[in-house]
Specification:
Layout (H helix, E strand, L loop, with lengths): L16 E4 L6 E5 L4 E5 L14 E2 L9
Antiparallel strand pairs: 1-2, 2-3, 3-4
């Protein structure tokens, strides 16, 4: 199984579960079909209370574009 890499994810058109990565070892997962968000804390990152649990994704807002 190979993963797709995209520069921009249009949530209104996307399907499936997507991993969002940055320079941080923590990964966020977005389930666009079920409208859920999951934070998987990476090594050296501070854990949060909701890590490892799917949460309802209420919305996404662009800060700048």
């Amino acid at each position: 199984m190979s993963a797709w890499t995209v520069d921009e994810l249009v949530l209104a058109k996307a399907s499936g579960v997507w991993a969002v990565r940055s320079a941080s070892p923590t990964t966020y997962y977005v389930d666009t079909d079920a409208k859920l968000l999951l934070r998987r804390v990476g090594p050296g990152s501070s854990p949060g209370l909701a890590d490892g649990r799917w949460a309802l994704l209420l919305g996404v807002h662009a800060l700048a574009h």
